Amino acid sequence: MTDSIAIGADGVEQISLKTYTEKAYLDYSMYVILDRALPSIADGLKPVQRRIVYAMSELGLKATAKHKKSARTVGDVIGKFHPHGDSAVYEAMVLMSQSFSYRYPLIDGQGNWGSPDDPKSFAAMRYTESKLNRYAEVLLSELGQGTVDWTPNFDGSLDEPANLPARVPNVLLNGTTGIAVGMATDIPPHNLREVVSACVHLLDNPKASVSELCEHVLGPDFPTEAEVITPRSELQRMYETGKGSLKMRAVWQKDGDDIVITALPHQASGSKILEQIAQQMQAKKLPMVVDLRDESDHESPTRLVVVPRSNRVDCEAVMNHLFATTDLEKSYRVNMNMIGTNGRPQVKSLDQILGEWLVFRTATTRRRLEFRLDKVLKRLHILDGLLIAYLNIDEVIAIIREEDKPKPVLMSRFNLSDTQAEAILELKLRHLAKLEEMKIRGEQQELAEERDAIELTLSSDRRMKTLVRKELLQVADEFGDDRRSPLVARSEAKAFSEEDVVAVDPVTVVLSQMGWIRAAKGHDVDAAGLSYKSGDRFKLSALGKSNQPVVILDNSGRAYTVAAHSLPSARGQGEPLTGRINAPSGASFEGLMMGGDDSHFVLASDAGYGFVAKLGDLQGKNKAGKAALTLPNGAKVLPPVAVPAIDDHYLAAVTTEGRMLVFPLGELPVMARGKGNKMIGIPAARAASREEYVISVAVMGPGQVLKVVAGKRHLNLKLSELEHYLGDRGRRGHKLPRGFQRVDGLLVE
């Protein structure tokens, strides 16, 4: 079957499913985009919002009227203009009344209309009452003056306005959000005075750039006193492209030792924020905070109190952490997508929005003036006829009394039009007084002056601009207010790391021969004397602090990282290290390192190769660890040696043949990973056959003593006594004295 419509044998039209579904989905998409989700640039309203405002004006619910039940408005809206669900209409109505949602609310509500903590906690429409706010007059005041086009409602029984004749660019002032098919809109609210100032500037300078307009429109202005912390350059880029994002941050101050939060970001819930902070406290991620209070009341709508543990707590750091981890700082997407005056959706830049709206506003003003001019000319025409009648009143009365059809006689006798003759015939007797002639002449003069002024304005673009500017400034004077959301440059918030929130205590980490690990408080711990499982014994220990990582080196040269504060207490026998890391089966652990990220250690293999590594470079983020030391064939890992300092320190290496070499530690490279450089020369054949290998390495500095241990013998050598063994890195080294040919290890004291 083709995509075109075909007529079947039974005379029924047939169409392919593909064509039908494409058309149906396209129609639906266009409906959602144009008639539901996106606002019009003209009045900044979606269709449902426009219909609510118009229906309320038709019900006489102006700002000066009494409140009426919201259900009455909703009924009118869905019955006359918007045949959808009443709950959807009422929710749209509620949003327009919430001063914490709309920068300039359109509806004045009475009753429960929700709260900043829970905007959807409003009462049902049968309980609440409403009327239009004064600001709604900005949208409605020119409605009956020929300013907009009218379209039939859904059943053709009534007409409704296609747009409202807004006197200011409401699309920017209140903003909006919406999701259509394949597109969305997120327009932030702005300050009326700033937007009007930008419009006036654009009227005077039609080619003004976005950067010039940004001198007037400083940035979005939300209905909250929280800070907009997005940099000025990013805001300008957002206005240039119509897309971007911005951040808001809560306002806080110190009250004694307490932290008091006085303003929250737009649409942030105070109760939810307190819940987020409480969860962190329960998870022991905020040990420096001991209490939370919500002291918000009628006088202080937002007052959240965070109580630090003591006056030594850095409140700036605490708030920086809370900004990064809670809704005290929120990001908002900006996508200024709207339906233009051409009826098409488009993401627009600031100059496009204001320029297009000014074209609409100028056209609206022109239509209003032309409508008024037409009324004035018609009235003048009637007044001319009435004046003729007053000047010939006796004759007019005689014609009316004597003629069966006085209208044509009057028209021919006094050269009147049909409209004029009709007006004369409809005159009431009380208007025949002599005083009426003076009134007519006075009205004629006033209307003639008004006609001349209107014609002058319509014929001059400059005068038209002046009128538009004047009316914009009038609205700014009447409804404008100061900026509520201050623009403040702030550094990026950073959450506490796991180490930041851990109490800093000295600890000794102990690793057993069978790979069980634990942490004991303090540095004066007898690690070998601790209790071990049957058949297990002490192997390695490292001294450090509870907020530092522990880096473990296995027999393949791979480094693994665990947090010291998370290790079990030394009161027990610990837990298997393999439960915390993914080490290869059968791996043994040869090194234990602790310290700051800038701490240095010598990593070496018994083949005589090694390098200096920073502890920060050895730390891995996953359980699989990271490659650190590359081993030559057959070589084994030597225990890492801590480096107090590289300058003025020496490295001593001794082999199984009793040869020792001492050289400046600075000759070893600082590397993140690898095999390293040759420390002491071992003939290749002897190294390959494992006849000779390095048994121990040590790092010593000025004033320290190198102790060579061979069985029960000890040889203590000061730095000045090591001249015989000093040499360049990679040399063969010299033989130790008799009795020290089989060295067990090197110690530094």
Descriptive overview:
The chain is an alpha+beta fold. It has 5 domains: 168 residues, Topoisomerase II, domain 5, CATH 3.90.199.10; 71 residues, Gyrase A, domain 2 (2-Layer Sandwich), CATH 3.30.1360; 107 residues, Topoisomerase, domain 3 (Orthogonal Bundle); 99 residues, no CATH class; 153 residues, Neuraminidase (6 Propeller), CATH 2.120.10. The protein is built from 19 helices and 37 strands. The chain has a 4-stranded antiparallel beta sheet with strand order 12-13-15-14, with helices on one face. Strands 21-19-20-24 form a 4-stranded antiparallel beta sheet, with no helix packed on it.
Task: Provide the fold topology.
Layout: E1 6-7, E2 13-14, H1 17-37, H2 47-58, E3 68-69, H3 70-81, H4 86-95, E4 107-110, E5 129-132, H5 137-140, E6 150-152, E7 159-161, H6 170-173, E8 176-179, E9 184-187, H7 192-204, H8 210-213, E10 227-228, H9 232-241, E11 243-249, E12 251-255, E13 258-263, H10 270-282, E14 289-294, E15 304-308, H11 315-325, E16 329-335, E17 337-339, E18 345-347, H12 350-391, H13 393-402, H14 406-414, H15 418-425, H16 434-458, H17 461-479, E19 506-512, E20 516-521, E21 538-545, E22 549-554, E23 558-563, E24 575-576, E25 589-594, E26 600-604, E27 609-614, H18 615-618, E28 626-627, E29 641-643, E30 650-655, E31 659-664, E32 677-678, H19 684-688, E33 694-700, E34 705-710, E35 713-718, E36 734-735, E37 745-748
Antiparallel strand pairs: 1-2, 3-5, 4-5, 6-7, 8-9, 10-11, 11-16, 12-13, 13-15, 14-15, 17-18, 19-20, 19-21, 20-24, 22-23, 22-25, 23-28, 26-27, 26-29, 27-32, 30-31, 30-33, 31-36, 34-35, 34-37
Helix pairs in contact: 2-3, 3-4, 7-12, 7-17, 12-15, 12-16, 13-14, 14-15
